[in-house]
Amino acid sequence: MSFTTLGLSPNILKALAEQNYTQPYPIQQEAIPAILNRKDILGIAQTGSGKTASYVLPILMNLSLHATVSSKNRHVKVLVLVPTRELAVQVKEVFQKFSSSFTERIKTIAVFGGVSINPQMLDLQNVSVLVATPGRLLELVESNAVHLSDIETLVLDEADKMLNLGFKEEMNRIFALLPKKRQNLLFSATLSDDVNNIHQIILENPLVIKIEPEVDQIDLINQSAYLVSDEKKGPLLRYIIKSKDLKQVLVFTSSVYSAENVADKLRKNGIDAISIHSKKSQEARTIALSKFKSGNLRVLVATDLMSRGIDIKFLPYVINYELPRSPKDYVHRIGRTGRAESPGEAISLVSPDEQHHFKIIQKKMGKLVPMIDSNELDIKGY
After folding, report:
1. Reading across the β-sheet that carries 183-188, which strands appear in turn?
2. Among 121, 218, 258, 289, which is disulfide-ready with 145 (CB 3.0 to 4.6 Å)?
3. Alpha-carbon torsion 225, 228, 229, 231, what sign?
């Protein structure tokens, strides 16, 4: 199947060709025609499955078809709610990348906390698409800088994380400000009870699209694990990075404290590393992410939440310094490598206390990961 069969306009097809998009992902094949026809969508798909473009392309086309209809200033037509600043910027960039192909001006901006609100208030002039984190959006609404009464399409991206982070009350306040008649698009990596409950509230007769992680994609990832005590995880991590001469390594930790500690120890041992987490300023996070994406930073140490804005087409290495709580999160983490039909490597450092949990992860994933005993390695001096 090609993009030409999905009902997209010639200018979008041209933009896709210029961006080297050749074939639609499964979620795009199902979602694009349905969104063009104004249907509600519940899409369950992991990051890297192409879901952002699956709603960006048809939304832009629908907006362009009705560009002649005048709208009041500061009354946005499309609202995309996301859990993190990084994801907000990433989604905005996708909208801007494809809207540049239109003769009509479709303005997209991203708003989020952690930075001054005044420039965002000024930038909301004549906006068609607003990508926002819930808290900052409500601040802007309360300041009369933006109005939600003319929203035609609402998108909830990474709904599972938004609900886990306790945005539920803020989202309920936002829903109350929206017109009852609108298109609703809800995307999530998992279908948790919270996601299921909220989809029953806001979606009307939705098309449900569930894209399971492809076995072929996981097969592209060379997985390995090391059995190691907690106190030796740091030296082992440094040994792996240095002995294998790894570049552009994404390391996952389970907490802000751990991310900060791991990055600090790496730097003290001559490995260029920066941590990215919710306690860092927006400027620091943006700089770290930019350096890592461009290949000018050897190691980025991230929590699961902050990783949501890290979308690198050919990321070669992922290391689980600590295991995630769920098997789905494990697949989500390692799925950041082995993408775009390019091989990748995923390494997990497993303490004796995590062994049972790692067995469950392997069982759920349907793959056995070879385990190396770190006692057989000479990691002294690392």
Report:
1. 108-111, 129-132, 78-81, 153-156, 183-188, 41-44, 207-210
2. 121
3. negative
As a whole number of angstroms, the distance between CA 331 and CA 333 comes to 5
Whether domain 3-210 has CATH 3.40.50.300: the reply is yes
Residue that wins the pLDDT comparison between 9 and 155: 155
Taking only the tens place, the pLDDT of each residue in 140-164 is 999 999 999 999 999 999 888 787 7
Q: For residue 64, which of 4, 104, 36 has the smallest C-alpha distance? A: 104
Q: What does CATH list as the number for 215-376?
A: 3.40.50.300
Mark 89-127 as b/e (b = at least 16 C-beta within 10 Å): bbbbebbbebbebbeeebbbbbbbeeeeeeebbeebeeb
Region of residue 341 (left: phi > 0; alpha: psi -120 to 50; beta: else): left
Q: Residue range 129-146: average pLDDT?
A: 95
Query: What is the total residue count of the chain?
Result: 382
How far apart are the C-alpha atoms of 302 and 126, rounded to whole Å? 36
Residue 19 has pLDDT above 90, yes or no: no
How confident is the prediction for the chain on average, in pLDDT? 87
Extents of the domains making up the chain? 3-210, 215-376
Start-to-end CA distance of the chain, whole Å, equals 51
CB 192 within 8 A of CB 325: no
Instruction: Express each pLDDT in 248-276 by its tens digit.
Output: 999 999 888 999 999 999 999 999 999 98
Q: In the Cβ-directed half-sphere of 311, how many Cα atoms lie within 13 Å?
A: 18
Q: Residue 279 pLDDT more than 60? A: yes
Is residue 166 classed as helix, strand or coil in its secondary structure?
coil
Count CB neighbours of 128 within 10 A.
Answer: 23
Q: Do the domains spanning 3-210 and 215-376 agree at the CATH topology level? A: yes
